[in-house]
User: Fold this.
Amino acid sequence: MANSHVYHLLQVVAQQLRKQADEAGMAAAGVSAAQGAALFAIERSPGLSQREVAKALKQQESAVTTMVSRLLAAELITRTPRSNDPRTLSLDLTDKGREALVRLRAELDEINRGIADALSPDELEVLAPALERLAATR
Assistant:
């Protein structure tokens, strides 16, 4: 395979997976894949600021602003001033947000099973670390 096609193939697969995750996430938990990623970041590190969520997702803070507003409106997260710096707002999951993540995680597990079914164990063993390296350099 010519190296010039690698980017295109990654882009096509990423788009397909994002669409599948968006559809599954909306049906099961009422959240898009991007909103789910923000919820997962907050779950891993409760109390993140909006800026910290943007950094964790490798997105512009302006993009995360809209996402946070939607998550707040859906009552999936709360936003409260930090005790050590009231100008910085901490984001935390609500019970409804934790329940949404349980449903979303089940859908993402199904997507991951589909990926595992499409690839051999040897291919997965090479692909996953390679994608992690690519993600870490960007």
